[in-house]
Amino acid sequence: MEESPDPPFEKTFKNLFNNITPQKNFPELSAVEECELPLIDLSRLNLGEIERRACKKQIAMASREWGFFQVINHGISREILEKMRGEQVKLFKKPFHEKMNYKDLNFSAGSYRWGTPSATCLKQLSWSEAFHVSLSDVLGSGGLDSLSLIMEQFAVMVSELSQQLVDILAEELGQNSGFFRETCLPNTCYLRLNRYPHCPIYPQMFGIMPHTDSDFITVLHQDHIGGLQLVKDGKWFAVKPNPEALIINIGDLFQAWSNNVYKSVEHRVVANPLNERFSTAYFFCPSYDTVIQSGDDPCVYRSFSFGEYRKQVQEDVKIFGHKIGLPRFLVQI
């Protein structure tokens, strides 16, 4: 009998599934309205100064009002994206025990993660699995196999796109974009390859529980299944998938660095009862000793290092089961 690729969610977290009381344990996932994120054509950056300025303004406005937007003509070919997805699917189709013990030059120990080890109730359990891969393990690896080769090509392109976008966002704030070139290096950024198995028994499960990202920006390539939802004006909205676009979202560090001009908004993934979902996320992060501080006065947040931020997040997740994030670093009046 062929072993399933799916992690043993119900067996491992059986205590959470025992004596289920929907009102108590399951997240409240009422029907949400579908929305289309602001769509930005990056080819406008090459169409003369007027179009270039308008495109930059559109990027900044979406980052202020939504915290999310999608880009087309972003410089990463469909061929690269399709190859990346194909290799990712092959990787996740391996039997669960092989993924648990997966050894590859690009995957360090502990890179494979699934579920939520710290979960104390079903609201905190993520019905998903992922490989977390540092770019320092990807770039210059020599492409020893098809997965390594396409990961390196994808990483180079998405790194360049991320740098371009943060440069624009810094410029629109009147700030020096050199800060990001000095602090966000390949060995501080990483990829996360995600798979969300179908969840027919518990359709109210989260693929990933509500959270904000802790980086500067995240670049997401998702498939056509859907499931990503975000908060806008206090309401949850389902993001309509666009196979031609990459999704960009602002992270906590950029919200703090911009003094709350750009918004890091809460988002989640809802499990699908019929279909599995795949996505690839690139996290644009600085070194742990990088100090995050706004040039504006009065500052909303006190200065803090990225390492301090990550440590606080990990402590809160361990104690409370969820991330608290930026409110921990508000200036005390």
TL;DR of this structure?
The chain has 333 residues and is an alpha+beta fold.
Largest sheet geometry:
8 strands, mixed
**C-alpha geometry:** globular
Assign the CATH class: Mainly Beta
SSE topology string: HHHEEHEHHEEHHHEEEEEEHEEEEH
- Structural class of the helices, strands and pairings? alpha+beta
CATH superfamily: B-lactam Antibiotic, Isopenicillin N Synthase, Chain
Family: Belongs to the iron/ascorbate-dependent oxidoreductase family.
InterPro entries: DIOX_N (IPR026992), IPNS-like_FE2OG_OXY (IPR044861), IPNS-like_sf (IPR027443), Iron_ascorbate_oxido_reductase (IPR050231), Oxoglu/Fe-dep_dioxygenase_dom (IPR005123)
Protein name: Fe2OG dioxygenase domain-containing protein
Keywords: Iron, Metal-binding, Oxidoreductase
List keywords for this structure.
11 helices; 5-stranded mixed beta sheet; Jelly Rolls; 8-stranded mixed beta sheet; 21% strand; 333 residues; 15 strands; alpha+beta
Report on this structure.
By secondary structure, the protein is of the alpha+beta class. The chain has one domain (29-291): B-lactam Antibiotic, Isopenicillin N Synthase, Chain (Jelly Rolls), CATH 2.60.120. It is built from 11 helices and 15 strands. The strands form 3 sheets. An 8-stranded mixed β-sheet has the order 2-3-11-8-13-6-5-4. The chain has a 5-stranded mixed β-sheet with strand order 1-10-9-12-7, with no helix packed on it. A two-stranded antiparallel sheet has the order 14-15. Strand 9 and strand 10 (235-239) form a beta hairpin. Helix 4 (49-65) packs across helix 8 and helix 5 (78-92) crosses helix 8. The mean pLDDT is 90.
